[in-house]
């Protein structure tokens, strides 16, 4: 039988079609900004046919300073039923609260969000970056949220609001970048001796578990070194693999995860990532050679040397005396905490107080 499903079109392209073919003609010169930002695999350019089974379809944000009710009513009356073969209206899944899917039913609702720019930014980040980004804002904001605002696509912006916000969040200031990198190396330094000790104790499961944690930290480190905000776990490997630098580093990390002796495979991965660090010019280059951990017969990088080298160059007084705990998602790993601005900013403020 012939497959009658529409040919897969990436979500960013589908949403652009929704804007250009259906939304823009209705606005009749009304100043606005339009984009697809925020949550969703399509915002990161990582969606595929599997993504279409829930919460995926033609959608976008329409940013207006005022007149939201009139514009929303206009869209509800005049948007077409389909764009590029896809229904533009959605209904909730009856057996999956919080999820929805496109529908041809007249009971469905379109997903053109009509929002005020500042309110939308505060809802995602907890602050409006158009007013400036403080050091505390950088450290309180999960990298996934920074990626959600700086990725995606802007379709139109004659208000200039999205360009200003995205430019302000494009990447960390150099001192914040050094501090976040130092804290990521600190995580490596704290656990790198544990892999060999687990192996020596005959704890094969423990050895693999700690090795996997270190691989995750090295992947995030590579993304940070390459000026990419690390996404959450589902897309971390995909984002890492897309880096040009991954062509060399990824095979070494794969060996760590698949080898019967991850302790012996980690030194190569350490050296490659340390070399990336030295090439940034953010700190004085340090040796990438591994060495024994005290008198124990397994190698470590001694990642603390990169922590010290990075912090030597930090001049921001808000960072020079700060404990090396890092940005929020370097010490918090809980989805509920990292998706609620009131929570992640509150936790970061409490850490600042400590």
Topology:
Elements: H1 11-27, E1 33-36, E2 60-63, H2 68-78, E3 82-83, E4 86-87, E5 89-92, E6 100-103, E7 109-110, E8 112-115, H3 117-125, H4 135-140, H5 143-150, E9 153-157, H6 161-168, H7 174-200, H8 204-225, H9 233-241, H10 246-258, H11 262-279, E10 291-293, E11 296-300, H12 304-312, H13 317-320, H14 335-338, H15 341-353
Parallel strand pairs: 2-8
Antiparallel strand pairs: 1-2, 1-9, 3-4, 5-6, 5-7, 10-11
Structure write-up:
- The chain is of the alpha+beta class.
- The chain has 2 domains: 11-168, no CATH class; 174-322.
- Helices cover 50% and strands 11% of the residues.
- The chain has a 4-stranded mixed β-sheet with strand order 8-2-1-9, sandwiched between helices. A 3-stranded antiparallel β-sheet has the order 6-5-7, with no helix packed on it. Strands 3-4 form a two-stranded antiparallel ribbon.
- Helix 8 (204-225) packs across helix 9 (233-241), helix 8 runs antiparallel to helix 10 (246-258) and helix 10 packs antiparallel against helix 11.
- The longest helix is centred in the middle third of the chain and has 27 residues, at 174-200.
- The chain starts with 10 loop residues before the first helix and ends with a helix.
- The model has no long low-confidence stretch (mean pLDDT 92).
């Amino acid at each position: 039988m012939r497959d009658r499903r529409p040919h897969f079109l990436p979500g960013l392209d589908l949403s652009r079609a929704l804007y250009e073919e259906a939304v823009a003609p209705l606005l009749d010169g009304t100043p606005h900004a339009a984009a697809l930002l925020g949550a969703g695999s399509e915002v990161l350019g990582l969606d595929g046919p599997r993504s279409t089974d829930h919460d995926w379809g033609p959608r976008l944000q329409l940013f207006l300073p005022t007149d939201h009710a009139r514009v929303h009513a206009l869209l509800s009356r005049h948007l077409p039923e389909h764009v590029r073969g896809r229904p533009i209206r959605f209904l909730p899944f009856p057996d999956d609260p919080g999820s929805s899917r496109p529908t041809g039913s007249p009971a469905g609702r379109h997903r053109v969000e009509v929002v005020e720019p500042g309110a939308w930014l505060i809802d995602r980040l907890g602050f409006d970056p158009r007013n400036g980004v403080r050091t505390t804002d950088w450290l309180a904001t999960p990298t996934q949220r920074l990626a959600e605002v700086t990725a995606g696509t802007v379709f139109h912006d004659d208000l200039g609001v999205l360009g200003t916000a995205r430019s302000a969040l494009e990447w960390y200031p150099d001192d914040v970048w050094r501090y976040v990198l130092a804290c990521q190396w600190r995580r490596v330094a704290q656990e790198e001796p544990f892999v060999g000790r687990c192996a020596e104790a005959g704890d094969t499961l423990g050895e693999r578990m700690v090795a996997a944690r270190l691989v995750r930290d090295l992947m995030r480190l590579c993304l940070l070194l390459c000026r990419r905000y690390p996404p959450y776990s589902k897309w971390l490997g995909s984002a890492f693999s897309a880096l040009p630098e991954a062509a060399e580093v990824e095979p070494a990390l794969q060996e760590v995860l698949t080898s019967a002796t991850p302790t012996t495979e980690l030194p190569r991965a350490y050296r490659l990532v340390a070399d990336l660090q030295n090439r940034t010019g953010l700190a004085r280059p340090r040796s990438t050679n591994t060495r024994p951990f005290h008198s124990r017969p397994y190698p470590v990088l001694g990642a603390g040397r990169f922590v010290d080298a990075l912090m030597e160059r930090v001049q921001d007084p808000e960072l020079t005396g700060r404990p090396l705990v890092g940005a929020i998602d370097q010490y918090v790993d809980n989805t509920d905490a990292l998706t609620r601005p009131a929570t992640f900013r509150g936790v970061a403020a409490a850490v600042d107080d400590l």
